[in-house]
Amino acid sequence: MPKLNNSEAPLPFPILMGDIGGTNARFSVLVDAYAEPKQFPNLHAADFKTIDDAIKQGVLDKTSVRPRSAVLAIAGPINGDEIPLTNSHWVVRPKTMISDLGFEDVLIINDFEAQALAVATLSGDAREAIGPELETVVASRAVLGPGTGLGVAGLVHAQHAWIPIPGEGGHIDLGPRSERDLQIWPHLEAIEGRISAEQILCGRGLQNLYHALCKVDGVQPTLKEPADITTHGLAGTDKLAEETVSLFVTYLGRLAGDVALLFMARGGVYLSGGISQKIIPALKKPEFRAAFEDKAPHSAMMRAIPTYVVTHPLAALEGLSSYARMPQNFGVATEGRRWRR
Ligand SMILES: Nc1ncnc2c1ncn2[C@@H]1O[C@H](COP(=O)(O)OP(=O)(O)OP(=O)(O)O)[C@@H](O)[C@H]1O
């Protein structure tokens, strides 16, 4: 009978690694600590009844390598032996994976924890600097990812190791600051009466912000999808879409600065998620960095903290493979989320 495993021992090779989002699941296999990971085609969760079917048909049926262990990064809180995914019908059942798919050892971590692991080791060509090109220092970092939702994680550097701190930072309050903000806030759709960061800083949030601006200006909204808003905003072909994108990067900068303060992230703040890469030209305008640095009495300190967009298409899997190769370099907590045969 598979059971919880509190061991800190490295996962046995070959290791299956998975980045399981609400829409997409990406897998790769690491044969040993020196090999390059073998990447499998991106899978859509909607095409498979269960995650076990996806692993079987999308990975195990396509290779003769038999992974002995798995480390999976999932979007959702990890609690107990049955872990439902946020925004997906899949339920992760590590005990069933062990008994039915042949794994000896399964570790489940949070998707933003995997993003944090990636940020520890991403090279210069896997990221694009926003604002001044500052020297990278080995110090705590943070990652924020606006996508379907808003993920936030810290990466604390202590005792010669990188310690990912997953949290629910996307749900902290975001307050109005400027005159324009004070006009907009009453028109934003709230969650139980409050404007959390995720009410604005994600795909749905872009729509929320655009609609609030339309109401303030008494204009009929014409744009529907988040991508329509950013496309017109970036091209300058719709005035309110342009303002929506400008405010979106302002608020993202404001939150990124707060998260940097919280973790003392001298090593930099990294923007991931599906949206950041699509709005790089807007992030490179002055508003993002201005809001990021506007943190009196610590503005001078903020000016020395680099900010980046993660441009690597498979950053979370990169993070998982860094960890799988050298677990001793990372302080990944395994209590209550590692199972063995
Ligand atoms: N060009 C764009 N501009 C703004 N928003 C976009 C754009 N393209 C996609 N989006 C929005 O980004 C969100 C999807 O983000 P993302 O790709 O990060 O998905 P995800 O949450 O990581 O899920 P998965 O991991 O399953 O891919 C959706 O809300 C979508 O509407």
From TrEMBL:
Its EC number(s): 2.7.1.2
Keyword Transport part of the UniProt annotation: no
Cellular localization per UniProt: Cytoplasm
Signal peptide: none
GO molecular function, one term: ATP binding
One Gene Ontology term, aspect cellular component: cytosol
Swiss-Prot/TrEMBL catalytic activity: D-glucose + ATP = D-glucose 6-phosphate + ADP + H(+)
Domain of life: Bacteria
One of the GO biological process terms: glycolytic process
Keyword terms, alphabetized: ATP-binding, Cytoplasm, Glycolysis, Kinase, Nucleotide-binding, Transferase
InterPro entries with a match to the protein in the record: ATPase_NBD, Bacterial_glucokinase, Glucokinase
CDD domains the record matches: ASKHA_NBD_GLK (cd24008)
Pfam families: Glucokinase
Binding site for ATP: G18, D19, I20, G21, G22, T23
UniProt cross-references to HAMAP family, sorted A to Z: Glucokinase
Family named by the database record: Belongs to the bacterial glucokinase family.
Full protein name: Glucokinase
Organism field: Rhizobium tubonense
